Amino acid sequence: MKGNLLFNLVFGIIGFFLTLLFSLTNNVFMTSVIRGLVSFIVWFVLAFLFRWVWTVISTPLAGTGFNDGEEDGGDAGTHLNLTTPDESDELNELLKQKPDAGFTPLNPPKLISKKDPEELAQAVRHLTEK
Questions:
Q1: Are 62 and 73 in contact, with CB atoms under 8 Å apart?
Q2: pLDDT tens track for 65-100
Q3: 29-58 and 5-24 helices cross at what angle (nearest 10)?
Q4: Among 8, 4, 76, residue whose Cα is nearest residue 41
Q5: What is the rounded distance in angstroms from the CA atom of residue 64 to the CA atom of residue 82?
Q6: What are φ and ψ of residue 116, in 5° steps?
Q7: Residues with Cβ < 8 Å from 130, sequence gap 6 or more?
Q8: pLDDT (tens digit, 9 = 90+) per residue, 42-72?
Q9: What is the DSSP code string of the chain?
């Protein structure tokens, strides 16, 4: 298992002091110390479980069928090769080409009201009265 007991002890001591400090505001000193010792044990065990889970997750799977075809067989799935093919020539050709059609700006139609201005004014007056 990776690491040593110092990691667990540090976690336990942190749990002890946190519990002691938060417990002192509501309890007497001896009750706070007892609760701190209980939290030391709980945090120590949690750190041990955390280290164990981390070790299980971080070790590569051996003999599970995932290593088929691998010559070394021990590090399948631990390396990721992120290379892309070189397409710089194709990109340069696309940049060199001139567009076939010329640029024509967008010419949207003008918005013209088909309503009578007096009718629009009456509608605005009616809406402002409510």
A1: yes
A2: 554 445 555 566 677 778 888 888 888 888 887 766
A3: 150
A4: 8
A5: 25
A6: -75, 135
A7: none
A8: 999 999 899 888 888 887 665 555 544 455 5
A9: --S-HHHHHHHHHHHHHHHHHHHHTTS-HHHHHHHHHHHHHHHHHHHHHHHHHHHHHHSPP-SSSTTTT-SS-S-TTS---------HHHHHHHHHPPPSSPP----PPP----S-HHHHHHHHHHHHH-
- Tokens 């088929």, located at residue: 68
With beta carbons less than 8 A apart as the criterion, state whether 28 and 20 touch.
Answer: no
Contact 40, 12 (CB under 8 A): yes
- For the CA atoms of 11, 22, 39, 16, the dihedral, rounded to the nearest 10 degrees, stands at 40
b or e along 87-103 (b: 16 or more beta carbons within 10 Å of the residue's beta carbon)?
Answer: eeeeeeeeeeeeeeeee
